[in-house]
Amino acid sequence: MKTELTALIAVFTITNTPIVFGQLVPPPPDGGIEPDEVIVLYPSPEFGDLQAALDAVPNEGKLIIGPGSFDVPEPLMISRRITIQGAGCRATMAFDRVIRSPQELVAAVKDSRSSDLPYTRLVGSRPTDVVSPDESIGLISFMGRNAGGAVLDLEIVGQDAGIYINDAPLPSDIGGELGADDGQQPDLHISNTCIVGSARGLHAKTNGNVDLSRVIIWAPLWNGVSFSTASGESDRTVSLTLKSTLVYRARNACIYLDGVSSIIRDTPGIGCGPQGAIVALNNTIAVVRSNFVQLGGPGLTLIGSNAYFFDSLIRNAKGHGIWMTRSALQMKDSRILQTTPRQSTALYGDGITALNDSSANLERNLIEDSSRAGIANFGSEIRLIDNILQCAAFELHEEKYPFVMPIYNPRWDDDGGNLCGCPSANNDCVAISVGLQAPEPSGSGE
Predict the structure, then answer these.
(1) pTM metric for this prediction
(2) Where are the beta strands (DSSP E) in 172-327?
């Protein structure tokens, strides 16, 4: 690596303007860098610290940080679109193994972290508490309407958030001292990166699009991902994409979303806290081939949201497997297993709870070992095709549910092929509404 850095440093372009340390023209043989892209290298005698190196990177430029561990006593502030790239995060190598369960992935991550693979680690202060969302800041902070870019191949340790993006206008944007806002939203790409021991892994308050690929968020003090749209209007749908992103032992929610269109694919959440795996407020969300296990709350909380849940697993959720109000759910080829009450003296334990004019289309799912009801319907419409409700505590033996309660008017449409009962199956039973107490509204927080 030292030889490669020496070769990079040796290439310069001499112009009438001051030379930027590490500028590369022409691009290296792999063709991965545009001819006009400026590369800044760190560490180097040119810069006293990482912030100085970042300040030298122009818009659309790149900072390459060599292998090793670097103390970052103050948050790194970025107000342009740049790329920050390190030598790697060892733990993301776990995604390259053949993994058959979330628990195996955690074991592979732990093995990778102790390997001798090259890495770049940025170490900030370790938080002992969680500050309010408005006071949070990241070890790497993209600030202002022109900020964004990419974070690649890093190990990030500590701070209120590992990575923070907030596109509220900076004073320079308003006053024009550093150039006017160019009108673009600050998209951010994060890949092959690990965030360890931060209060929040990724904290986003933005109208830009963010995507994470091969990212590990390990033991955050609050949420693994906190994402909400920024104040003001946006002229496009804000999206968050998580692919192969592990959130492990978040003390609150693994993923918290507010007002964003989300795709969560091949992503496990393990050991999420009392808000559970995913909290979605006013969202459109698709969850595909993702596993959520060992949860301190629901697997999926939907409030005013539309959700698609496909080929995914919720196991050992507390209170509810899926809790929804004023929401629509499409669920196919998925499993909700072993939902338990929040307390030993009960407090629910339903596989799916639907309230307040929600709707759910359920096809080819398995809901097994719910402590209370496989499906609890309070004033919603539920359609079932080819589902198995195994060992639910209560059952309803009707093709259509005609009973009208004073408060709730649930509707069941059994469109065939549904089996339930314990230990034997019964072709007529689908779920339960009679005799159940409706749960309290689920709380949430960034």
Answers:
(1) 0.86
(2) 188-196, 200-205, 210-218, 225-228, 239-248, 253-258, 261-265, 269-270, 276-281, 284-288, 291-293, 300-303, 306-310, 313-315, 320-325
